[in-house]
Automatic annotation (TrEMBL):
Membrane topology classification: Multi-pass membrane protein
ABC transmembrane type-1 domain ranges (all copies): 1-99
Source organism of this protein record: bioreactor metagenome
SUPFAM superfamilies: MetI-like
An individual GO BP term: transmembrane transport
Official protein name in the record: ABC transmembrane type-1 domain-containing protein
Keywords, alphabetical: Cell membrane, Membrane, Transmembrane, Transmembrane helix, Transport
Signal peptide positions on this chain: none
Amino acid sequence: MIPRNLYEAASVDGGTKWEMFWKITFPMITPILIVNLIYTITDSFTSYSNKIMQLIMTTVQENMKFEYGATLAWIYFAAIVVVMGLVYLLFNKHIVYID
């Protein structure tokens, strides 16, 4: 919850509703937006409608090529780690933490 006194101080200083949103509300809700983004990206990578996941599952379950399936899974995992690392690096400086 965003402290009410921040909005009161901005109002006293002559801030508009638009400025209050962009300078108070948005920075304060950024951490939850980042968490939501991370969960959404992770979910899109692990969805069964994902073609790469279908290839890995088909390789292991139907073709019985466990080594090849495991190799594909590790490569896919490494790609996901790289993407999530980039998301972290890009958005880490935009997160505002309050006490």
